[in-house]
Specification:
12 helices; GMP Synthetase, Chain A, domain 3; alpha/beta; 341 residues; binds adenosine-5'-diphosphate; Rossmann fold
Length: 341
């Protein structure tokens, strides 16, 4: 058990690097230290000297067993100017003039990583904090929210103003493109059709009223980083994006591409979640690392984005999804709290 503190590390590196160039510092119980160090690429070959000096200096701290400093030359995402949460002071989304205070996206570089599972459970956890929360399933390629929330094969009604009434279930207001179309037809949607459908689900759904706007809308994005995703991110003026990845997909460029996409559109990245991180044995509760472990934490440090947590590969998560029940897993409460929305 080590008692190394962040302060000790910053103190040791004082004369060597600017403290602002250090991010994603992680100190584990075994005395292993990991952080990202952003450097000016103009330093050229001197970068490596500095790298070694930094690692050596941290390694000389009592109790430190191993040091990994990841050199990056990227601009910090956190250094981006945060968006004014409510520039009009009216509790409305400024672009589409929606009665929604904050819109956050749950995104992934590719399909099948558990993006929808995370979106649903995260929305549920956010609702438990007392906020009014909506869940919009904008995954046109495979809308799974109806199934995950136990609402398959039903169609929404409209109100007097001709707006679609979202389903109220699990303490959430729920709308999905899957309520409107058959699952198979959803697959062939392209370009403008996709956008108008998504617009419709933002504008023409009774998410809230001017007097009582919805606090948070969680959008389950289509997977990937193509045009549909880019336009969506641009047009709806997202307040932030959460990226989901599995450990084995981290080596691929998908996560990076997703993060780049949001950076291009000036959407703040709220953090990275590693899903299907460890396997909990159903017989004995023992935790196993099937696909390697901690990759997302390293990747988050490299990309200068917050690491939000690891979700285990857990049969009860799948079962609750299959049954359309939301059980309230503690890990999602922790992530909701970290997001601090
Ligand atoms: P995506 O939206 O990225 O395509 P889904 O959320 O639909 O992925 O998840 C894909 C499959 O993996 C589903 O069957 C889901 O129940 C399962 N799954 C997702 N996350 C977990 C987890 N942490 N543990 C067990 N099963 C999971």
């Amino acid at each position: 058990m080590s008692n190394i503190t962040a302060e000790q590390i910053f103190n040791a590196l004082k004369g060597l690097v600017n403290p602002d160039s250090i991010s994603g510092l992680d100190i584990n119980k075994k005395g292993e230290i990991l952080f990202a160090l952003s450097v000016d690429p103009a330093m050229g070959a001197k970068m490596e000297d500095l790298h070694q000096q930094v690692e050596k200096t941290v390694l000389s701290i009592k109790g430190v067993k191993k040091v990994t400093a990841i050199l990056t030359a990227e601009k910090s995402a956190q250094a981006q100017t945060p968006k004014t949460p409510d520039p009009h002071g009216m509790g409305k989304n400024p672009v589409l003039d929606l009665p929604i205070k904050k819109i956050i996206a749950v995104a992934s570089g590719k399909g099948g990583v558990g993006k929808s599972t995370v979106a649903v459970n995260l929305a549920h956890a956010l609702a438990k904090t007392g906020k009014s929360v909506g869940l919009l399933d904008a995954d046109i390629y495979g809308p799974s929210v109806p199934r995950l929330t136990g609402l398959p094969n039903i169609k929404p009604d409209t109100n007097d103003e001709n707006k679609l009434i979202p389903f109220e279930e699990h303490g959430l207001k729920i709308m999905s493109i899957g309520f409107m179309v058959e699952q198979d037809t959803a697959m062939i949607w392209r370009g403008p059709m996709v956008q108008s459908a998504i617009y419709q689900m933002l504008r023409d759904v009774a998410w809230g009223t001017d007097e009582a706007p919805l606090d948070i809308l969680v959008v389950d994005m289509p997977p990937g980083t193509g045009d549909a995703q880019l336009t969506l991110a641009q047009k709806i003026n997202l307040d932030g994006a959460v990226m989901v990845s599995t450990p084995q997909d981290l080596a691929l460029l998908d996560v990076r591409k997703g993060i780049e996409m949001f950076r291009k559109t000036d959407v703040p990245i709220l953090g990275l979640i590693e899903n299907m991180s460890t396997h909990i044995c159903t017989n004995c509760g023992h935790e196993e690392h099937l696909f390697g472990h901690g990759g997302a934490r390293v990747e988050a440090a490299k990309l200068h984005i917050p690491f939000l947590g690891e979700i285990p590969l857990d049969i009860t998560i799948r079962q609750s999804a299959d049954q359309g029940k939301l059980k309230g897993f503690e890990i999602f409460n922790e992530i909701a709290e970290k997001l601090n929305l």
